[in-house]
């Protein structure tokens, strides 16, 4: 079933997730603090797949699923607009000054912080933080579909995000409740930290095999 997906943030992750969503046949709406950036990305996504892509200059959030493709802590600015929605947090709350730690307390994740900020009627799902933007454009690395790890407390919200992942040609892995976002954010950080050491150029993927 076609979903309407609002992506806030027309940067690299907005482009990667938007590409997967349009290829999966969904209708994507791009919002950005710079409406020209939102329009430019919406134009780039148009025609990539069966879905559609538009931008809204007024910043209205009409999607049933909202992806916050924004830096850590910027998502909280949209609390009013996303109230009552399924909200996807993709952030890695890395301390970019030191590249040596996360900015969140050890017993909390960025996703849980957002859930506290948004309140009980908004359903936060952690997803896509372990997949790099460039790899999302293709949805695969080395011929293998990306694994997208999810965490969330609302099963129906998580199911909807999992469907978005599957429709985009990737594999969804349910890691459990929202508190598992703590481990997902550490995994995202580790994956980033390995890029320079292994010279992977942010083209690698975290993949679970059995
Ligand atoms: N890049 C990756 O491979 C990757 C992988 C996993 C997770 N992530 C996470 O994804 C999120 C987005 O990363 P990205 O790589 O897409 O970054 P990006 O390319 O810099 O895009 C970020 C977007 O957010 C906007 N923005 C920045 N600060 C804002 C604010 N205070 N209020 C409203 N909008 C704001 C930017 O607008 P301007 O252009 O006007 O600054 C831009 O449109 C981050 O949390 C990152 O940790 C990234």
Name its key features.
7 helices; 210 residues; two-stranded antiparallel sheet
Question: What report would you give on this structure?
Answer:
With 210 residues, this protein is an alpha/beta fold. Helices cover 35% and strands 19% of the residues. The chain is built from 7 helices and 10 strands. The chain has an 8-stranded mixed sheet, with helices on both faces. Helix 2 links the parallel strand 2 and strand 3. It binds NADP nicotinamide-adenine-dinucleotide phosphate (NAP). NADP nicotinamide-adenine-dinucleotide phosphate binds at residues 9-14, 32-34, 37, 69-72, 74, 77, 90-92, 129, 132-133, 188, 202.
Assembly annotation:
single chain
Q: List how many beta strands DSSP finds.
A: 10
**CA radius of gyration:** 16 Å
Question: Strand content of the residues, in percent?
Answer: 15-25%
Strand order of the largest sheet: 3-2-1-4-5-6-9-10
Major pleated sheet: 8 strands, mixed
**What small molecules are bound in this structure?**
NADP nicotinamide-adenine-dinucleotide phosphate
Could you give the order of the helices and strands?
Answer: EHEHEEHEHEHEEEHEH
Based on Cα principal axes, name the global outline: globular
What is the helix tally?
7
- Percentage of helical residues? 25-40%
Low-confidence stretches: none
Terminal-residue CA separation? 30 Å
The chain-level mean pLDDT equals 97
Indicate the structural class.
alpha/beta
């Amino acid at each position: 079933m076609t979903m309407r997906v609002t992506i806030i943030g027309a940067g690299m992750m907005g482009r990667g997730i938007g590409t997967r969503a349009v290829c999966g046949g969904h209708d994507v709406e791009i919002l950005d603090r710079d409406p020209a950036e939102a329009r430019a990305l919406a134009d780039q996504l148009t025609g990539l797949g069966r879905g559609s892509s538009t931008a809204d200059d007024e910043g209205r959030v009409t999607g049933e699923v909202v992806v916050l493709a924004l830096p850590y802590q910027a998502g909280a600015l949209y609390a009013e607009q996303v109230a009552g929605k399924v909200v996807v947090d993709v952030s890695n709350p890395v301390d970019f000054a030191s590249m040596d730690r996360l900015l969140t307390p050890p017993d909390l994740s960025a996703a849980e912080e957002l859930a506290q900020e948004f309140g009980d009627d908004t359903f936060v799902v952690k997803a896509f933080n372990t997949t790099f933007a460039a790899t999302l454009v293709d949805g695969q690395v080395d011929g293998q579909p990306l694994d997208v790890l999810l965490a969330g407390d609302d099963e129906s919200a998580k199911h909807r995000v999992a469907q978005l992942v599957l429709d985009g040609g990737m594999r969804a892995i349910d890691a459990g409740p929202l508190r598992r976002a703590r481990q997902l954010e550490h995994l995202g950080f580790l994956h980033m930290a390995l890029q320079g050491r292994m010279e992977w150029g942010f083209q690698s993927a975290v993949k679970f095999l059995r």
